[in-house]
Amino acid sequence: MNWDQIEGKWTELKGKARSSWGELTDDELDQLQGKRDQLVGKLQQKYGLAREEAEKQADEWARKL
């Protein structure tokens, strides 16, 4: 699934994101609104990941959808 589709279906996909990244709160997921760059930034912040690793995780998650 591409990121435009993810943004459009974010309400449905938040639960899947929550199961992948349990440290993200519901409020944080609501604020992300399915935007890739915001998700990557939040993964960096919450999990202490390098940008490249956060991008890799986000893209792998999107491919699995």
From TrEMBL:
Annotated transmembrane regions: none
Gene3D superfamilies in alphabetical order: YjbJ
A Pfam family that the UniProt record links to this protein: CsbD
Span of domain CsbD-like: 4-56
Annotated InterPro entries: CsbD, UPF0337_stress_rsp, YjbJ, YjbJ_sf
Similarity-based family: Belongs to the UPF0337 (CsbD) family.
Protein name: CsbD family protein
Organism: Halomonas heilongjiangensis
